Amino acid sequence: MAKVKVSLRPIVSRLNMPTVLKTTILPGDSIERLFIATQVGEIFCVGNGDIRTFLDIRSRIIKLGGSSGGYDERGLLGLAFHPEFYYNGLFYLHYSVAGTQGPGALPGAPESFKPTPCDPSTLNLKWINREAQYDHIDTVEEWILQSNGQSQKRRTLLNLRRPFLNHNGVNSLNFSPETGKLVFTTGDGGSGYDPFNLSQDIMEIFGKIIEIDIVKNTFIYNSPVVTRFNELPVSIQETLTVIAKGVRNIPGISFQKHYSQYIKYVGNVGQDLVESIFSFVHYKPIPVTQLTHSFLMNSEPDQEGLINFGWRGWEGAFPTSFIKGCPENQTLEEKTIAYYNETVETSARRLQPLISYFHKDTRPDKFGGTALTGVQPYMGNEIPELMGSVLFTDLARKEQSGPPIRGVLAFTRVRTDCKQNDFSVIETDYNFGSQSAYYVSLGTNLNQTKLYLGVFGSMKVADFNQGTVFEIVPYG
What's this model's pTM, rounded to 2 decimal places? Predict the structure, then answer.
């Protein structure tokens, strides 16, 4: 692939960590505006050179950055506008709820769990005593922008009790142009190596891609806090279908129209080895009522047509492994397969990635990645070399010798056969100076002809006002 170079044009700076970048047209308005959600709970609206606060729910967000040295993956993580937002004012939020901090599901080792193949007890852990041993509660809500310009919550769609601080997903709410349903993309519950194998267990909500039929307009007062599908009231179960399992952590789902079909793109954030982007066209969603019926009948539900990304047996293209330095030579490493039996079990059922990029890659035109943070198709013609491509962002380039840190922007070409593909790094001309620049989010406008990049100067959520949102524009 030929080298591509772009420019970054700053739109807004001094933001808190930007988690979602989307556009829509406000009721009664005539222009498409950019909406920026921040991890701490603000949503800003940008257009015609002005920026204003659309919503501020900071008081509803859990206290962030209290552990893990200030790093946090909770907060305001999802924002989606109803396809008819211009007429009905409905929008949807996913966030971690204030006052719900728990001790975590594995006290003492919240984010550093590693299995030991020689110790079977570490391969078959169960999440027990869930009502007491959890990290926090996430909620998915429907809100309405009223005619007086004020927004208010209409109803709760889901309340989820999460085992760990991390892997909650980000950019986690997106409407499907194919089905009109709200697609909720959620990580495996967190820690490392999915200690409870929630991602493969079809009854567990975590590690799945779920469609929510918001047209059913189900109102449940005091919606229960759950971790499994069978704990939901039947009226909520009836609104849900499962598209995919085997998710580790996920920066949303995006859709690209190709003739009469939509190609779906999903990124799965890696553990220690590899970051993966998957694509698929056809899938057969499983109604949650069908899952719970099978569970009650003690029978195996039909999972034919369900997409399976393979985690935790597979980390993208590789069997999930952990890395140890070689005692005689610290420049060498050995990789040990973590869950051999599960690797075998899911080997034929899993979807192969469209592209993989690696945490260590010595090839001159590639890079060592850290974590995939966004995947978006580009259908514009302003940057002709990228037209019809799929762009992605990585948090931070690995092989840098020290600060300042830089994120990575790259792209791959579309393959409708969904076979594996290569990728190229996109060069950018922006001078961040001595400031670090983690690439934390990627977004587009409604028809995918404009691209937006969210950059943050730190890994710590409480390092306030270090964010900038750029438009990616032609070079020069």
Answer: 0.97
